[in-house]
Amino acid sequence: RLYRRDLAKLQREIRLSATPGFSSYTGDGRQEIYATQNDQSTHLQSQRALLIQGTESLNNASKSIERSQRIAAETDQIGTDIIEELGEQRDQLDRTRDRVREIDHLPLLLLLIGLCRK
């Protein structure tokens, strides 16, 4: 008879301890609550650390994008300046070529003038 009573008591304790948040002993219940709160706190700290890390990564990426945009704008300005300078150099070369052609034709022109005077 005592054996069955002890067995029933143990079975009840096992069922209660298998149910989350319940325990047959008051001290164990508190310990379980504190353990759950500690787990939640640890989880929140972990999430907070991940959030901070994600924010830092986002800030770094934003700064990198800003630097890239600034460099692209500077490169665009340099390219525009180079194109303008090359255009000016082309005009100068065209004028020089025209002068050289005039000079090449000068002896022929002088000869023709000389022939016309005779």
Automatic annotation (TrEMBL):
A Pfam family reported for this protein in Swiss-Prot or TrEMBL: V-SNARE_C
GO biological process, one term: regulation of protein localization to plasma membrane
GO molecular function, one term: SNARE binding
Record's bilayer topology term: Single-pass type IV membrane protein
Compartments (UniProt record): Membrane
Keywords: Coiled coil, Membrane, Protein transport, Transmembrane, Transmembrane helix, Transport
One Gene Ontology CC term in the entry: endoplasmic reticulum membrane
Family recorded in the similarity comment: Belongs to the VTI1 family.
UniProt-recorded name of the protein: t-SNARE coiled-coil homology domain-containing protein
Organism the protein comes from: Sinocyclocheilus grahami
Taxonomic lineage: Eukaryota, Metazoa, Chordata, Craniata, Vertebrata
